[in-house]
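My main concern about presentation is that the manuscript never shows what a single data entry looks like. For the editor and my fellow referees, an illustration may be useful. For illustration, here is how one protein appears when written out as sequence plus C-alpha cells:

***
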Amino acid sequence: MVREKIPFFALAAVASLVTYAVQQQEGAVVTVEILPPGARVGTPMVSYCRYLGRLFWPTDLAVYYPYPGYWPLAEVLLRGCSYAAFRRFCL
C-alpha cells in the first residue's frame, strides 16, 4: 500500500524543491537572522487573530497582505491573550 504512493511522494518532493528554489531566487525566502525574535513570535499571533476575525466579519479582504515590518507590543499582547482565550474556551 505504501509502495504505490512512492511516486506521489517523489512528485511532491520535486514540486516542493522547485517551489522553494524559485521563491528563494525571487527573494521571497528570508533567513531567520533577518527577523528579530519579537517579529517571529508576534506575527503568527496577530495574523491568526486577524484571519479569525475576518472569518466572522469579512471586510478588507485581499489576496496579499503586506508585512508591516513590526507590530506594536500592545497589539501583540492583546491578540495573544485573545488567541489564548479562544483556544481555552472554544477548542
Remarks:
- Helices lie at 6-25, 37-56, 73-90.
- The chain has three helices and no strands.
- The radius of gyration is 18 Å.
